[in-house]
Give the backbone structure.
Amino acid sequence: MRSIEVFKRHLREKRAIKIISGIDNYDLENVKKVVSAAQMGLASAVDVACDKQVFETAAKNTTLPIFVSSIHPFKLAQAVEWGADAIEIGNFDALYKNGQTFSADEVYEITLETMSLLEGKNVFICVTIPGNIDIKEQIELAKKLELLGVDLIQTEGMKPQGVKTVGAKALLETAQATIGNTLELSRHVSTPVMSASGISAQTTPLAFAAGASAVGVGSAVNKLDTQIEMVATIRNIVASVSQRNSINREFARNTKEAQTIK
């Protein structure tokens, strides 16, 4: 299994890409396709449900770092025993459809309990900030999580209700809240921020421009029918980040040359 240190380096370079299988995805064949595609697509990490069979399937089919997602502290502690490279408190998107919601206090208490169970263990911890709470509450929760010493904060955005659009406009509307939350949170904490929920190849550059150090991509990949489509989509996402970085380097080089001329 690839070291989490590589994912950390990608975070520092603001180009980390995590492919999310799904917190409620127990379809082993689909998990296998998603994590294999992440490997072939050159992603930075994968994220799977907190289930031993799911984890073992992922571990057999990728050498990328594996995040395990759950809202249950004891299960997350178990995942560390299985060999998880990182744990994720959240990826709530899939749970909202079942009527579940999460307050800032609930997320903070889950994080406290999880960290208590993992005390003394060197585990990479990511926590999702619920997109359904007010942005002021999101900022306060992010600050409290930073004080706890979590390694990564993941944002999400509630999808617009009743909006029926297609194409590029739909992609932008889906990602708008996520990217807006990323912008706000990255201004208030120094902990790296990951944009997730509605992120696609087209909106990935916007997330990084808003201050993200990473993006988490779920349904844009795991809902596809074939592994070929998954690999192609992930490579498009990776390419969009590479293109952005090339443009930034060119801009920095031109700026430096202009200053030298002056």
User: Anything to note?
Assistant: The first helix runs from residue 4 to 12. The CA atoms of residues 135 and 181 lie 7 Å apart. The beta strands are 16-20, 45-49, 66-70, 86-89, 124-128, 152-155, 193-196, 214-217. DSSP finds eleven helices and eight strands in the chain.
